[in-house]
Amino acid sequence: MDHLFRQRRISVPKRTSELVALVAVSCTLFLFLHTRDLSTKLRRMEGRLNDDVTAFNHLTDRIQTDRVEHSFASAQEYKEALEAIRRHTGAERSKPQRTLEAEPEESQEQQLAEQEYLDEALIPEAWELNNTARAGVELLFFNRVPKVGSQTFMELLRRLALRNQFGFHRDAVQRVETIRLAPADQQVLVSLVSAHTPPSSYIKHVCYTNFTRYGYPSPIYVNVVRDPVERVISWYYYVRAPWYYVERKRAFPDLPLPDPAWLKKDFETCVLSGDRECRYVEGETHEGIGDHRRQTLFFCGHEPNCTPFNSVEALQRAKRVVEEQYAVVGVLEDINSTLLAFEKYVPRFFDGALQLYWEELNTFNRINRNAFKPPVSEAVKQIVRANFTREIEFYEFCKQRLHLQLRALRDPGITPPSPTRARGGRRKRAHKGKL
């Protein structure tokens, strides 16, 4: 038997053996060099991460904040917070001397590529931000915030209903608009909205309402926000516009006319004179549609702790509801990103919205145009902004989430605005003198 196996052995030429040995040595050398390069990159990335964490800890040790938790709603918000920390603490200057002059050009390019890779890796997948899939029924609920272009979006949705074949329904005009409802009234609203045959949409000025609490499937929630200060200025002149009272008198003939002195009062005088109407005191509560300072109220809900103006609790609750319940919260100042996100995340209702909007731009621009709204100086706006800190934080949160949703699509044809561009707004000319 041993003799048989010895006869079946295959002889390997000497040159072939040498070739195999050479390939093995080459592979070993290549893996060693590649591993050393990766190890160097990893140490460099760990160094930058440790610098960021050190700067963050240094800032949080020195500065007290009124936020209950140091949590960030998105990876984008976290990265921007770190960048702000570097700017304000001088962390960039205190880093080890990895200066531009000390490193070759190729190393800087590698660092940029690595940073871009990390930025991309931190972006969640689109399905993680898509609350549309969590809805229990094809019912769009647009609990529209006043003075955010909601009339324009409502007309756009009405036209899309014809194109995309779904029902369009809205609340009737009321003498006194009630946006914060008692539990019994919430149940009536939920049953009324849920009675429409899917696919349908329903639009109403009302706070966020939890449908599942009353035994009904959750709808697809959408809404739009606006710069809080621009919004209160818009409301201030909207309720003083002559055509506003003409429409109100037609609907309700017994409605009394306002004081002419009140109608003539301009916003700048109201703020600078310390008028009660324009003080915007933190913690104040005011029931009814007549007080539009609290944009967060439409996302926080009907609970009493949602009513104080500019409160931490209302802010945190509104953020959580947006993150967990709303498919898309658009931004009036960035109409393109808003309509694109509506199309991508709620296609059943908003397919073709962007094209339809720009095709009918002249029509949409005439909706609620207020020619009686004079310009307001930046100095006065800054005075007002000082009292809107948490309302502004909520607005910026919604804007960051909108742009994160677009980046999560990973579509090379979509370029979300950078943070600096987003602050300036887009397509301002299309909304000039409007709303």
TrEMBL record:
Gene Ontology cellular component list: Golgi membrane
Gene3D superfamilies named in the record? P-loop containing nucleotide triphosphate hydrolases (3.40.50.300)
Q: Which UniProt keywords apply?
A: Glycoprotein, Golgi apparatus, Membrane, Signal-anchor, Transferase, Transmembrane, Transmembrane helix
Question: Locations of Basic residues compositional bias?
Answer: 423-435
The membrane topology of this protein is: Single-pass type II membrane protein
What ranges does the record give for the region Disordered, renumbered to this chain? Answer: 89-109, 409-435
- Top-level lineage group: Eukaryota
Molecular function GO terms recorded = sulfotransferase activity
Q: Where is the composition biased (Basic and acidic residues)?
A: 89-101
Q: Family membership, please give it.
A: Belongs to the sulfotransferase 3 family.
PANTHER family per UniProt: HEPARAN SULFATE 2-O-SULFOTRANSFERASE (PTHR12129), HEPARAN SULFATE 2-O-SULFOTRANSFERASE PIPE (PTHR12129:SF20)
What's this protein's name?
Heparan sulfate 2-O-sulfotransferase pipe
Which species is listed as the source? Answer: Manduca sexta
